[in-house]
Amino acid sequence: MMRSDPRTLQLNEQGQLKHFLTLDGLSKDILTEILDRAESFLSMGEQSVKKVPLLRGKTVVNLFFENSTRTRTTFELAAKRLSADVINLNIETSATSKGESLMDTLQNLEAMQSDMFVVRHQDSGAPHFIAEHCSPNVAIINAGDGRHAHPTQAMLDMLTIRRNKGQFEGLKVAIVGDILHSRVARSELHALKTLGVAEVRLVGPKTLVPEYFSELGATICHDLKAGLNDVDVIVMLRLQKERMAGALLPSESEFYRLYGLTEESLSWAKPDAIVMHPGPINRGVEISSEVADGDHSVILSQVTNGIAVRMAVMSMAMSGQVQEQQALAEGEG
């Protein structure tokens, strides 16, 4: 059976989000709407009552087949601030590890009248598969799938850039590290190009920055000084230690010597450059503590912005689902 295109699967007939699976193919208008809505939610964190009723009466299920305490926690907090009921399904101890298939698990959750699944999975394309096969009135949010995509992380980074730089036009952005295995890098590249930055540089050793990324519109740099020269934004990626068993790198210390962000290498960027990292940070492997904790770092702002972006995406997808159901009901009436 041919799979539907995730770029069309995630929009309703009115062009609104009903799932959030990938940034590939989404328009600048939709990405800007996500950022604008997230901006409106940021002020909520300063209020004594940190809730709005946009998802009141709705049930959100966090389906994390791959562990990530921080991402799951921010999605849970975002859903609760939207007044949703939240179920965290521990897949390690659930029926899927006892032989129940993914489809059986989904159908049981649908039978409980769940309204949204937040899915993190080690296999690329799993959220897309779920969106295709589950009930059409359940919104699917991709919280990271294999090497494919991590769209909410990319959008919280876009919000962080916009809040610090004011606009995207004219910006030069360097993404440094393990590009090959990074779903964050792929999603960031789509978002940055759509939002109109001047240049995206992918920086790292040849084993971790394949040349084919240039076909997506990026500039490939294997030298850190050339990659950071005159950039406005630096995104450091986690060096995935589980990959170190292969022959992709000689050692962590060698990587840090050649590609680690230190106060010296930071000086090659613009004087007002910002430093970002999706976390968790490996200090002394990708980035020095002086830089991670320094004045250029906006890493903690990324965490704050992540809650607002996830609130924006969840509320927009649920609204798109409701609009589609209303349109279908009127068509049948």
UniProtKB/TrEMBL annotation:
Carbamoyl phosphate binds at residues 70-71, 120, 150, 153, 279-280. Pathway: Pyrimidine metabolism; UMP biosynthesis via de novo pathway; (S)-dihydroorotate from bicarbonate: step 2/3. Its EC number is 2.1.3.2. This is Aspartate carbamoyltransferase. Keywords: Pyrimidine biosynthesis, Transferase. GO terms for biological process: 'de novo' pyrimidine nucleobase biosynthetic process; 'de novo' UMP biosynthetic process; amino acid metabolic process. Pfam families: OTCace, OTCace_N. Catalyzes the condensation of carbamoyl phosphate and aspartate to form carbamoyl aspartate and inorganic phosphate, the committed step in the de novo pyrimidine nucleotide biosynthesis pathway. GO terms for molecular function: amino acid binding; aspartate carbamoyltransferase activity. InterPro entries: Asp/Orn_carbamoyltranf_P-bd, Asp/Orn_carbamoylTrfase, Asp/Orn_carbamoylTrfase_sf, Asp_carbamoyltransf, Asp_carbamoyltransf_Asp/Orn-bd. Residues 169-316 form the Aspartate/ornithine carbamoyltransferase Asp/Orn-binding domain. HAMAP family: Asp_carb_tr. Belongs to the aspartate/ornithine carbamoyltransferase superfamily. ATCase family. It catalyses: carbamoyl phosphate + L-aspartate = N-carbamoyl-L-aspartate + phosphate + H(+). L-aspartate binds at residues 98, 183, 238. One of its GO terms (cellular component) is cytosol. Heterododecamer (2C3:3R2) of six catalytic PyrB chains organized as two trimers (C3), and six regulatory PyrI chains organized as three dimers (R2). NCBIfam families: asp_carb_tr, PRK00856.1. Residues 18-162 form the Aspartate/ornithine carbamoyltransferase carbamoyl-P binding domain. PROSITE patterns: CARBAMOYLTRANSFERASE (PS00097).
